[in-house]
Design a protein that fits this description.
The structure holds 2 protein chains of 2 kinds. By secondary structure, chain A is of the alpha/beta class. Chain A has a domain of about 90 residues: 2-Layer Sandwich (Beta Polymerase, domain 2). Helix content of chain A is about 20%, strand content about 30%. Chain A has 3 helices and 7 strands. In chain A, strand 6, helix 3 and strand 7 form a beta-alpha-beta unit. The termini of chain A are far apart. The mean pLDDT of chain A is about 85. Chain B is mainly alpha-helical. Chain B folds into 2 domains: about 35 residues, no CATH class; about 350 residues, Cytochrome-c3 Hydrogenase, chain B (Orthogonal Bundle). Chain B is built from 17 helices and 8 strands. In chain B, strands 1-2-3 form a 3-stranded antiparallel β-sheet. A 3-stranded antiparallel β-sheet of chain B has the order 6-7-8. In chain B, strands 4-5 form a two-stranded antiparallel ribbon. In chain B, strand 7 and strand 8 form a beta hairpin. In chain B, helix 4 packs antiparallel against helix 16 and helix 5 runs antiparallel to helix 6. Chain B is globular. The relative contact order of chain B is 0.19. Chains A and B meet through strand 3 and helix 3 of A and helix 1, helix 8, strand 6, strand 7 and strand 8 of B.
């Protein structure tokens, strides 16, 4: 099954939930509403054979609304096709349902996403930080988190 | 009246068999593991955050420091992702492609040698450790001749290679891979028929194909559960479709099966290296893309145009058009992927690394719960994790 067929089936099943489909360098990206993310992922896994969650991450578009974008990289081990699913998350309500019930892989990846980007996953089985210490304040991958750390002056160059 | 409480103990982060700084909190009932909870992050350096503040060329050295036992594979995954983002994938010269495959497979041998050495040492077979490191030293010497560094090679470049192969190294590599199958037989002679080795790893760390796919396990750990999937064959990159090799698969689902998968992969790597050496023809090593690739060093030091060209790329970088790509490569540990988002500036807007070891480690509790505490050591060995990649 080509990716185009999968996208058509997804559109036929979910209609309004599919917000946009784009292609870049031969990779297909589908943007869906965040409320339906678990239903979309379950459908993709069970009906369309995307049985493997390669990766999961989020992007911070600081200054834009909605601020965050969740990214799911899916893979079909049978047909070797890739598909990228995205869902926008508002800053004021930075939460999305967990997909760890669909693919167990998502457990740690969502913990990492919470740890570094501060997105909360509803119904997550183990919502702890994973890379940073448990008592860390802030989420380092956010664009408004300084690269040198929160308690240091920015690097001014060698001559100053 | 006997007391049936369980006991919780720490394994690591300084335990020698945790291969770095992995901390496992084990809940034990006698010697049986009831629950295992990995704690990671001791080596977190924020490579994804740092890369948002560097140009595309400057990120390359950071990728060496992910899986430091297979640096060339990380370089390869990263440069392939940037080349795809730039639309340069078809412009890479033939010689650069062949050298990339040649070094990727040498790196696979190097990484698998460390796996076998440490796996055997953890279980108590010290001789194998010393033999494996003897052979690994040859590959380290090749690395040093190529790039000047023994571990963090930083040898590939966006568009090709940083330098051509030094004179005479092809014969040395040929000699090495001629000898290598004999060495692998030596390791097998020491281990496969060894009754202690068999008792320790047969039936240990069982994970079914369904569970492994559900948990995202990749690489030899997945192929040891009978899933016939290898990115080199199924999504060929760097010209892997032109090589004749078999994908090693075993369906035992245990450490014994994964041991055989990796040994076969080492033999197949030798085959691929022979083919790559046969294909090696003189030619350019960098793509004809002056806005992306650095000029040859002799132009930089001899001509003002070359110097300006070099200076512009080093100081300003290059600007890919806005877009996003994901490229995964078959690292010795599993699929390592780079997801790059460009906003048209010289630095990536977001870079996400798909770490193979991080996701494979997630399967560890499933593989050890219910087995003996001594088996945890064997399972950590068979998962072949590298903490530099897990913590990033």
């Amino acid at each position: 099954m080509s990716v185009q067929v999968a996208v058509d089936k997804l559109k036929a099943k979910f209609g309004e939930t599919v917000l946009a489909v784009s292609e870049f360098r031969g990779e297909t990206t589908v943007v869906v509403k965040k409320e339906e993310i678990v239903a979309v992922c379950t459908f993709l896994k069970l009906e369309l054979g995307f049985n493997f969650l390669t990766d999961l991450c989020s992007i911070d578009y600081l200054g834009q609304a909605p601020r965050f974008m969740m990214v799911y990289q899916l893979y079909n081990i049978g047909t070797h096709r890739r598909l990228r699913i995205k869902a926008a998350v508002e800053e004021s309500d930075a939460r999305i349902d967990t997909v760890s019930g669909v693919w167990a892989t998502a457990n740690w990846l969502e913990r990492e996403c919470y740890d570094l980007m501060g997105i909360v996953f509803n119904n997550h089985p183990d919502p702890r930080r994973i890379l940073m210490p448990d008592d860390w304040v802030g989420h380092p991958l956010r664009k408004d988190y300084p690269v040198q750390g929160p308690d240091r002056e920015p690097y001014q160059g060698r001559l100053q | 009246m006997a007391n049936f409480e369980t006991m919780t103990i720490n394994m690591g982060p300084q335990h020698p068999s945790t291969h770095g700084v992995l901390r496992l909190v084990l809940e034990l009932d006698g010697e049986t593991v009831v629950k295992a909870t990995p704690h990671i992050g001791f080596l977190h350096r924020g490579i994804e955050k740092l890369s948002e503040h560097r140009t595309y060329h400057q990120i390359l050295p950071l990728t060496d420091r992910l899986d430091y036992l297979a640096p060339m594979h990380n370089n390869l995954g990263y440069v392939l992702a940037v080349e795809k983002l730039l639309g340069l994938t078809d412009a890479i010269p033939e010689r650069a492609q062949v050298v990339r495959v040649l070094l990727a497979e040498l790196t696979r041998l190097k990484s698998h040698l460390v796996w076998l050495a440490c796996h055997a040492l953890d279980i108590g077979a010290m001789t194998v450790f010393i033999y494996c490191f003897r052979e690994r030293e040859h590959i380290m010497n090749f690395y040093e001749k190529l790039s000047g560094a023994r571990m963090t090679s930083n040898y590939f470049r966006v568009g090709g290679l940083s330098a051509d192969l030094p004179d005479g190294i092809e014969q040395e590599i040929r000699q090495f891979v001629n000898d290598m199958p004999g060495h692998i037989e030596t390791y097998e002679g020491l281990l496969t028929g060894n009754i202690i080795w068999q008792k320790r790893i047969q039936g240990n760390g069982i994970i079914s194909a369904e569970d492994a796919i559900d948990l995202g396990v990749t690489g030899p750990s997945l192929r040891g559960s009978g899933v016939d999937w290898d990115l080199r064959r199924d999504e060929p990159y760097s010209g892997y479709e032109n090589y004749d090799f078999e994908v090693a698969v075993a369906d035992g689902c245990d450490t014994w099966a994964r041991y055989h998968v990796r040994l076969k992969e080492m033999r197949e790597s030798c085959k691929i290296i022979h083919q790559a050496l046969d294909k090696l023809k003189p030619g350019p090593i960098l793509a004809d893309a002056p806005k992306v690739c650095l000029p040859p060093k002799k132009d930089v030091v001899n001509t003002i145009e070359g110097l300006i060209h070099h200076f512009k790329i080093i100081t300003e970088g290059f600007k890919p058009e806005p877009g996003e790509v994901y490229v995964g490569v078959e690292n010795p540990k599993g699929e390592v992927g780079f997801y790059l988002v460009s906003d048209g500036s010289p630095c990536p807007y977001r870079m996400k690394i798909r770490p193979a070891s991080f996701i494979n480690l997630q399967a560890l509790p499933k593989m050890v719960e219910g087995s003996l505490i001594a088996d945890v050591v064997a399972v950590i060995g068979t998962l072949d994790i590298v903490l530099g990649e897990i913590d990033r």
